Amino acid sequence: MSVLQVNDLTVRFALRCGELTALDGVSFSIERGQRLGIVGESGAGKSVAAFSILNLVGKPRYIAGGEVLFEEMDLAMRSPLQMRAIRGNRISMIFQDSMMTLNLVLTIGTQRVETLQAHRAISKAKARAVASDRLADVYACAPGTRFEQYPHELAGGMRQRTVIAIALLAEPALIIADEPTTVLDVTIQAEIMELLLELCQTCDVGLILITHDLGVVAQVTQRAVVMYVGRIVEEGLTADI
């Protein structure tokens, strides 16, 4: 059974000179525990698709048609309040730049505890314990020490591990990773990809990996879709593509 089913999704930009179609009838699905790659050149519509799944398309973008079915709910029709219960809880997202994702004036521990308490009726002490366990899951050395550090005190690879750990806090059914290794060097990129692969296999989490790198797609994903100018032009098993 599909955890996410995107059917004929169309997203447009309302501009002064008219409308621009960013996604044109995009359809794909992913099952729980499955790893799907969305690949394409810059401007193909990959990130727009990711933001549309979470209903984060703000003006001048808007969803013009189609449906995004997550656990049989159409996310395109959900209110902002209803989506708050889904984002970071049932669906988590990992962005390109961890320094832009994390709050620079709060410690790592504060951000992790706040995330967990936003979605769970849990004490602060219990939240700290769970958050520490998740940090250990991503092989962060000295997780207790990391709790008291600020984002700028961590190296790029450790910041991205922290972001992944936050994404796992509420035990989501699906993670969307939008170019999660773009700002990292090649060695750290490989470590992060191996980590995502291991976590998906052990936690039975679905993964949508958005990238322009076919090598990364081949390493991590089972199925792939290729996008070009807002359309899916190829879809199938990653090995076949």
What features would you describe in this structure?
- The protein has helices spanning 46-53, 80-84, 98-101, 108-119, 124-137, 143-147, 156-168, 186-203, 214-220, and strands spanning 2-15, 18-31, 35-39, 61-70, 73-74, 91-94, 174-178, 206-211, 223-228, 231-237.
- By secondary structure, it is α/β, with parallel strands linked by helices.
- Strands 6-7-8-3-9-10 form a six-stranded mixed sheet, with helices on both faces. Strands 2-1-4-5 form a four-stranded antiparallel sheet, with helices on one face.
- α8 (186-203) links the parallel β7 (174-178) and β8.
- The mean pLDDT is 88.
Quick structural overview:
With 241 residues, the protein is of the alpha/beta class.
Uncertain stretches:
none
Report strand %: 25-35%
Number of domains: 2
Would you give the CATH topology of the largest domain? Rossmann fold
Q: What's the mean pLDDT score?
A: 88
Any guess at the CATH architecture of the largest domain?
3-Layer(aba) Sandwich
Oligomer: single chain
Major sheet attributes:
6 strands, mixed
How many β strands by DSSP?
10
Sheet with the most strands: spatial strand order: 6-7-8-3-9-10
- CATH class membership of the largest domain: Alpha Beta
Distance between the termini: 24 Å
Element string (H = helix, E = strand) = EEEHEEHEHHHHHEHEHEE
The named CATH superfamily of the largest domain: P-loop containing nucleotide triphosphate hydrolases
* Global shape: globular
State the helicity in percent bands: 25-40%
